[in-house]
Every structure is written in structure tokens, then in C-alpha cells.
Amino acid sequence: MNANCAPVDISDASPPAIVGNCQDAGTGGGNKIVLWNGVSAAYTVLAPPGGGAKSCTALNVNFLAMVLGQCDYAGDVTRAVVWGSLRGSGLSVLGSINLNGMSKTYAVDMNDNGAVACNYLNANGSKQPCLWDPSDSNSNATAITLPTANGGIAVAIGNTGKVVGNYDVSGSGSWLPFSTPPYGYTSVSGGSPDGNSSGEQTSVSKMTRGGAFEAGTWIRVDFVAVDVVKSVP
User: Fold this and answer.
1) What DSSP string describes the chain?
2) Mean per-residue pLDDT for 41-69?
3) Global pTM?
């Protein structure tokens, strides 16, 4: 139906919702987001939020047909955005963390209940993870406390409400995975698969939608890289 359009995610609903990105089709040549509520349905264009959003890109769609995406604004500002809601106006833009305004918030993943794993750029220029409930057009998320203060990123959220990601152990780029309790804001370290964190790195890249298992890469002390699937702590 559209030139230069590609689907990026499909929901588990019946019929499924499908979200896609159309390059160079939006305002000023920016990206346009389209949503199909069913494989034979006509698409709907998801309009960018007000306030000068230049271009928006969709990341995923959940069971409720809520769409998570990212919008860029003038002045090197970026925002995580959710279209659709159980309550509220149906459009939420993430602009603050712990009620402090941020110039850069990043969309990561959304579960089927509408909770969003996100990242933001702190005052020191380091990325930090956060958890966002976009219901009622809420524009504020809560920071996730990491096992160390050296920075880290969220990579996924499951339907259990657990968030997983990776954090810098020593400030030198040595990474280990973390996870949170369901809908919690204080994380715990996932450690290394053999319990030896010295000289090793483990990073998580995916989590099952149910939130029970995570997958990642383990770089052992002998520099061998091993794919790992394990239960989320």
C-alpha cells in the first residue's frame, strides 16, 4: 500500500495489530508510522505528537494495539512516545525522570499491559534505565537503581513487569546483566553464569514476552563467547 514501508512488529491479539515505518513519507521527509488492526484492515497513520516533533519511528506494538516509538525534535531533543492507552488521551510523551526534565528519553520495549522499559541520558551524559507507565498521558518515568553507579541500559520488559538490561560493573566497560522485581525500581545483578565476574562479561539482549527467560552472550575469562539462555532472576 505504501512505497518504502516495512512492518516492524505484530501483536498476539486476534486479529493481530501490525505496526510499520514508512521512510521519507512523513512531514518534511521524516518517517511516518502506520498501524494495521488486522491483516486485511486499512492502515491508520499515527500522527506525531505536538510540540515540534520532526520524525517518529515505531519500535513495537502490544496486545492492546498500543504502539511504542521514538520521536525527534528540534534542538537535539528525543522522546519516547506511546500511542494508545487504557485510559487518558491515547498519546503519552516521556519528558521527565523522577519529575526532572530530560532532553533525551529513549523507548526500549513495552509489555502487553502497557508498561514501558526506557532509558534516558543523565546530566553526566550516561544512559540510565527507567520504567514508565504511560497511562493517563503520564509524561514522567521512574529511574531504575542499578547495582553500581556507573551507568547501564534497559533492553526489555516482560509481561511479569520485570525489566532486564546491562550495567557497567566498574566504570571501565565491563558489563553484567541486571533485572528488577515485577514493576520494581531497584535492580539486582544477574552475575556471570559460572559466578566468576572477574575478567568476564555477560550481556542480555532479549527476554521472552512472558518474562521468564532471558538470552544473551557470555564472554568467558578465556575470551570464548557463548550464547546463554537462562531464567530471569
Assistant:
1) --TTEEEEEE-SSSSPEEEEEETT-SGGG--EEEEEESTTSPEEEEPPPTTTEEEEEEEEE-TT--EEEEEEETTTEEEEEEE--SSTTSEEE--EETTEE-SBEEEEEE-TTS-EEEEEE-TTS-EEEEEE--GGG--EEEEPBPSSSS-EEEEEE-TTS-EEEEEESSSSS-EEEEE-STT-SB-EE---TTS--TT-EEEEEEE-TTSSEEEEEEE-TTS-EEEEEEE--
2) 91
3) 0.92
